[in-house]
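Our consortium's second objective concerns turning raw sequence data into structural hypotheses that experimental partners can test. To show how far this objective has progressed, the report includes one record in full. It was chosen at random from the queue rather than selected for favorable results. The single chain below, 297 residues long, was entered without modification.
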Amino acid sequence: MDFRHLVTFETILREGSFGRAARAQGYSQSTVTLHVQELEKELGVPLFHRQGRRTVLSEAGAALASRCRPVLDGLDTLKRTMAELQAGAGGELRLGSIEPTAYRRLMPLLAAFSRGRPGLRLRLEVGGTGTISREVAAGHLDFGLCSPPPAELHLRFEPLFAEPMALLLPRRHALAATRRIRARDLDGHRLLLTEQGCAYRQAIEAALRRAGARAECGMEIGSLVSLVRAVQLGLGIAIVPVCAVRPAPPRTILRELVDVDVSLSVGLVRREDGLLTTPVVTAFLAHLAQEGLGPSG
């Protein structure tokens, strides 16, 4: 069905005659008549009857009139949706991120990007690098913000920033009075770490090994928020992303390790084939490049 014919039909109803519909649409009256004739031929029923000089709706025409506007409204909505998709103003953005990148750095960018895009649908998955990378590789996420993905997934990694980490201590801890804390000073103290396989834990353990420290995990906690809370309650000490604990939470002190750099490389993880690069993904990546994901307090 040619939707122009429905538009002409609806215009005749609104304007009250073929002649006024022709003027409203900028057509000749013969064109309006042709549109109606082609619509009647396709539907197989007459839509108008002649009563003297007047043209009135047939029963079929009245039935079409009751359903025509919703169809045209739906078509208008579809056209707007397609235009928004093409411009990157609509559609679905599916991304994943590790913490604290998600809530400290990514959320403000998503909020700014969403303004003026009422048709945008967002899906944010927060998890570890392994989970996010596998979701990107499987096509369930458009991209991720995390540490370098496992090599066997064959994903592209574009470094964006280094997430610095520092030592979080209970204020009354034995090391709290020490201004220059070295990695080996942690030996013998209960070290709180995230779960096995977590990128932060891997970076911490690698840095401590390089410094010759023998600090061992005294408690494993799968949540960064819970880990910080455990330090507050005096359960131990932890090396955590600086942006997650600045300013230091109540009853804690933040100290840098003076003899070792503990940081995690965080970047953009995408599929090599680029098949998931829709207009809205392209628009957000441009926004990401413009605004950046630099240091965040």
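The partners drew two points from this record. Residues 3-85 form a domain with the Arc Repressor Mutant, subunit A fold (CATH 1.10.10.10). The longest strand covers residues 155-170. Both points have been shared with the crystallography group to help prioritize constructs.
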